[in-house]
Amino acid sequence: MFELAGFLVIAALGSILTVFITSFHRSWRPWPSKKTTVAPGSWPLFTPAGETDTANDEILREINALAECHETAALFSDLVRTDGARAWPPRANHDHGTWPAPLQPYKEIYYEMAPRLATASASLDDEVNRGRIADFRARFQRLLHEKVDLTQVHELLDAADAGRWDVFPRDTCNAFYCCVAWSRHAYRWATIPVVRLAQLETTLALPPALSSPWTRLQRHFGCTSQSGNNTSNLVLNFTPSAAYTLTINPSPRTASSSEEAFARIFHDVEVRALPIYHAVVHATAAHARAAWLSHDGQDGEGGPRFDGLSGNQVRLFMVLDAFLGLGAGAFRRRLGSAGVEGEIRAEMGEIVKRLRLFRTAHRARAKVYLSQPAPERLPMTAGKSLLRSDMEPNDHSWCRISQS
């Protein structure tokens, strides 16, 4: 499902953008951007000893070269330099021995607690689960209290806020962000698979070692969620060589491989999306922002009595509509059949075929996936949280499909 959902559309869209942009290469001129200080000069990529230069490294250098004269390139270049630790996907240093000493207990404690977190089969007995959750949290809290010096931790976070990366390297800060996010989730659920008893908890006080640093990390990374996000929990859980680091299910192999495969989706999306980001930077440099933002359709606008559509923040769908020939703003019908325009028309046809195939396959597979029995938990989705407790599994699956 991921190959279709994640890569085929991205690859097809990327090839169209490349052809589209190439057709304008003779007249390409980046307009002067507003004065910005986010990219004051070129910066070297972080390519460690033993690692070869990659195609993505070359893309990052090209984007950085545009940063002096184009605002979009400058902003993305700054994102890579700061949040990405001069790499993309963002670089996270999980080498435990290189972490500042005050932070090392976090990873040590997680590795000690992880084998106690997962179980091959969830219990349906609330009393058994209550005891398991209480024991896990008590041990976790005791280890944090004994081993973590919060004063020293906050001194390092002060250094990060001040941009003193010689004291607290950026790639180590990324990995620590990930470790704290994982530790908070482990403490919150206390058993995997997640059980109904934990789901029904409405409040939970986390240990100070997991709450006060997290508040600082949220502010530093601009993350408002108490649970973290895909970046903190998934993308940053890979080493620069793409090795999966923190784990939940040490065994059996079927569980651990499934866990890693799911997490790797989000990491690999960023690897494969960088050429798309590159194309977007060039596209925005080649065409005026006023034309792009002013003519992307009225569907997202609200009125006195009617709200805008719920998809008004998903610009990708608007772009796809334009390329697929949907809506008044589409240009597909005006394309010729020869030369570059013919190539664009052919690529558009391939995108349509893949989208139809994905939709057909996804509906069938989603029903099977969402109908899997999970008697230990209540129906829950990311967007709707807990659903009705009396909902039948089949009703739940179709309800979820209709929401997507």
From TrEMBL:
The chain crosses the membrane at residues 6-25. SUPFAM superfamilies: Indolic compounds 2,3-dioxygenase-like. It comes from the Eukaryota. GO terms for cellular component: cytoplasm. One of its GO terms (molecular function) is heme binding. One of its GO terms (biological process) is L-tryptophan catabolic process to kynurenine. Keywords: Iron, Membrane, Metal-binding, Transmembrane, Transmembrane helix. Belongs to the indoleamine 2,3-dioxygenase family. This is Uncharacterized protein. It comes from Trichocladium antarcticum. The lineage of its organism: Eukaryota, Fungi, Dikarya, Ascomycota, Pezizomycotina.
